[in-house]
Amino acid sequence: MLKSPLSKVIRTTANHLHRLKELGINTVEDFLTYFPRAYTDSSEMRKINELRTDEVNTSLVQIRSIFMKKTKTGKTLVRAVVYDETGDMPVLWFNQAHLTRMFRPGDDIILIGKIKFDRGVISMMSPGYETPKKELVHAVRIVPVYHETDLGEATDRGARGRISSKWIREKLHPLLAYTPLFKDFLPEEIKKAGNLIDYSTAIANVHFPKDEDTLNAARRRLAFDELFLLQLAALSRKWQWRNAAHEKNLSMPASNEVIKKFVQKLPFNLTKAQERVVKEILNDMEKSYPMSRLVEGDVGSGKTVVAAIALLNAVANGYQGAVMAPTEVLARQHYHTFMKILQRTHGGINIQFIAGSTPQSAKKDILNQMKTGTVDIVIGTHALIQENVGFKKLGIAVIDEQHRFGVKQREILKSYGAPHLLSLSATPIPRTLALTIYGDQDLSIIDEMPPGRQEIITRVVPESKRIDAYRWVEDQIQKGRQVFVICPLINDSEVLEVKAATEEFDRLKSEIFPQFRLGLLHGRLKQSEKDEVMEGFSKGDIDILVSTAVVEVGIDVPNATIIIIEGSERFGLSQLHQFRGRVGRGEHQSYCFLFPTSTSEDATKRLASLVKHSSGFQLAEIDLQMRGPGEVYGVRQSGIPDLHMATFGDVKLIKESRAVAEKIIEKDPTLKDHPELKSKIAEYENSVAVDY
Ligand code: ADP
Ligand code: MG
Asked: Has residue 633 got a pLDDT over 70?
């Protein structure tokens, strides 16, 4: 019955059904699990003398008189006078003649609306209404508010088939009869221990709660479910990864001599944070099962040497290593870095680079070396594991900027016999959040920058100073520096962004900096074109790089010392911080100029925190508080699941649900004794699956 198509159980138009479909609602179950996005608390009734202006009021009153009039223009006017023990109030409706048939003097009526205050007299214009006899759906309770389709309004003016919250409430209410059919997938003892109500009760009460307490209990249960399933799924993946290497013993004890020699030859000392993370990694590598660890560290915190030590340890233990980066430019950069730092102390290590642009014959040779085991470390893009490539003895895979590395790639790695997995990320996600969404990995955080790192001077530049700023930039370019110009995000539309970036490029080229060499980078270019532009900038053949937000994370152009961010308030703080990390990588003082298009209080406050703080983690926390994770880590950026009932800020519930998930996986790692949970996870993973 829950799977019945809605058309069988509610009476409505094809238009409405179509709109529901657009919301992903096809069956009774879909509809009942379409949870409210908010509630208006109209459970508080106000007397006539308590009604407030600028607010929607709910008031239970009696009708003194009600009658209909035609206006000169032919409209129907219903006029009523209502009262309670505190006074009288006139009420007016247009074109609702049926009201005079529904209500008679002496009837009770509930009015929901705003009041008008005119010459000492209050009145209500076209308020919503309800008769207090039947069960109240729209008023005198906590009223659910749903995400509505505004499509209807935009396309056909008469709003035919428009789905409003009111419409949803009306159609949904009778379906509550079906809620007992929902089977609870949570075991009884978990519910008891966690003080959680039944699933079916939660569903009924999340829509039409009797009071605040029932609503809170329902929301808590559903929020728990989300966080619990998310973490159970992650922990189950973690277990599977640990056991993916089967009988193989992957233990690689720390080769202390080799590592010591390497560290001593570095031109710097490791920071305390780097030392700690290295220890955590080496500890993992010594275990017989594959590691799965995420290293989070701000841009420039020195993740590369940490990864190099892990690779070195694998090689010293007789294994091969692979390093994967999301783009060819980044992969090539890693190749140069690893060559430089590893071969300096360990000249015998064979390191190779392979990517789309590698000539066929060279490619063949490297692939062969991978299979026979002659190459120790191979560096490339994800293609490295997508092609039908094999390794003789792959011991570790390092993945840079892990959020672009998907489930599919993991599966391929598994098929190669699950090596130790080390992910590196510069997206500073606060610890609890990271534990939740990347719960299948252990977490190491490099929370310390190498000493002597220059502060990037960050300034918000008002429009009146724009020309001055350009002049100053001109001077810097003449001194040999390079510049990034980031164009604003536009309505989530890549097409418009590309257009805006192209226009900005043309404008700068013809009007502002005609004497310099400009490059343009955006998401509509082919990868090879992007690579070419980045390469040109990297080599210094381009002075000013105009780019949409696609500018590669992690790219290292030490001579680029200025970054200009247009429409800067449209980006989240974390992303602005990432952009800022594009500069400040060389010997010269670097600058970040924020050009806002809005001077709203919120925008000003956010940009001010960027000027003030230089730690990505701190900024991420601030951003999280100001905007919530949905906004901060949009799906477009990072594939962080969208929570409906829970919030990533609810640390207490996150911890509680994680503890429960851990207990279950500990006892029943394959969930063979929990078939309902197993299928629920599968369902859940399908619904949040992100394509990579
Ligand atoms: P990221 O974490 O962004 O990948 P990198 O590993 O590229 O950062 O390191 C940034 C720069 O800092 C590199 O030039 C690297 O050589 C240098 N570096 C790394 N660790 C230290 C350290 N402990 N002291 C000084 N410089 C360091
Ligand atoms: Mg890096």
From this structure: no
Atom of ligand 1 nearest to the CA of 299: 3
Closest protein CA for atom 4 of ligand 1: 303
CA of 270 from ligand 1 middle (Å) equals 9
Residue nearest to atom 13 of ligand 1 (CA): 302
Residue with the smallest CA separation from ligand 1 atom 26 is: 450
Distance 333 CA to ligand 2 centre (A): 9
Phi and psi (nearest 5°) for 342?
Answer: -85, -40
What are the beta bridge partners of residue 592?
458, 563
Cα(274) to centroid of ligand 1, in Å? 10
- Residue 204: CA count within 13 A, CB half-sphere: 15
Helix or strand (DSSP H, E) at 460: strand 457-460
Pocket of ligand 1 (CB under 6 A): 268, 270-271, 274, 297, 299-305, 426, 450
> Is residue 631 scored above 60 in pLDDT?
no
With bands split at pLDDT 50, 70 and 90, how would you rate the model's confidence at 314?
very high
Write down the pTM of the prediction.
0.71
Residue in 277, 305, 454 to alter for ligand 1 test, most ligand atoms within 8 A of Cβ: 305
115: which strand partners? 124
| 530-568 tens-digit pLDDT | 888 988 999 999 999 999 887 665 577 889 999 999 999
Whether 638 shows a pLDDT value over 70: the answer reads no
CB 10 within 8 A of CB 170: no
Task: Indicate the burial class of 117 (C-beta count within 10 angstroms; 0-12, 13-18, 19 or more).
Answer: exposed
Please answer whether residues 630 and 642 qualify as being in contact, where contact means their C-beta atoms are separated by less than 8 angstroms: yes
